[in-house]
Amino acid sequence: MQPWETLDEEEVFAARPFLRVVRQRVRLPDGAEIDDFYQVKLRSFGMVIPVQEDGRVRMLEQYKHGPGRAGLSFPAGFIDPGEAPDVGAARELMEETGLAPDRLIKLGCYVDNGNQRGCEGHYFLGLGCREVAAPDDGDLEEMRQVVLTVAEVDAALKAGQFNVSHDVAGWGQARVLYPEVFGA
Amino acid sequence: MQPWETLDEEEVFAARPFLRVVRQRVRLPDGAEIDDFYQVKLRSFGMVIPVQEDGRVRMLEQYKHGPGRAGLSFPAGFIDPGEAPDVGAARELMEETGLAPDRLIKLGCYVDNGNQRGCEGHYFLGLGCREVAAPDDGDLEEMRQVVLTVAEVDAALKAGQFNVSHDVAGWGQARVLYPEVFGA
Fold it and tell me: 3-state class of A137 per DSSP?
């Protein structure tokens, strides 16, 4: 499984700090060259699946303009330049929910899209989360705090109340990798 | 949870058929207006989590240029214009693996990104998959067929062999919503 070689890269659109698009000229392992392979560069984010001390899960209900409708999501936000992913994820958790985790466990890091990349997401599991402040997010969206049992989160996923693949990926990782936390 | 209102939309970059970027002027529920909210429009895809008749799961090992490394993924590909998502997902499954499912069950539909949208992904669970043809994908990437037990897929996820949030979301949905298939 040899990697492709990037021979050249040109920025073809930019709207900083939101997004950039670059066009790459790439060489495949068989020697073939493609002169218009596009990569979309979005800011990295950190997400926390926050489990409270009582075992219930904190989520947010909010309208998001990407899907164009309201739904359930986990606390998440952009990582600041130079900020470590776990620090950024914990900061966003605090800003959006007022929760501080007793333990923050790294789940994984994934890009949005196999071809066009998009953003890089850093996923964490927050255990023993306690409310230490009032939420103060400064986000554009109004949001509502929601506290759900594990079975209720599963039911919400099944009922189509998730809208964004990040939230599905976050919950899926946590559920699959930590059966001792979420039950089997 | 009122939706935002899109007042105006202008295409600011296009590289058809791969991607388009539009700049929207939007009005928030509190009346505030934002004149530079960007949406990235990528082609919709269909993905199948294919479970063979023997209960094992088919995956693909391939290099993908988005993450820039090789890893494990599920069969997936772009849905053709006018094609139904389940038809496109089954077609891609056949092209990439030669598998035909006995039953194709809809899992969910999600956008990549809460803010910038990206592509829309249609996720399916394929049960009773049988090999009825040789793979004939025509994709740019060389790929290797991989057959794994459920525990081996979980272990691969834990070991960082997934690179793209779509694959994590696909596996997570299937595992959480169908414990009768995958075990608890």
Answer: coil
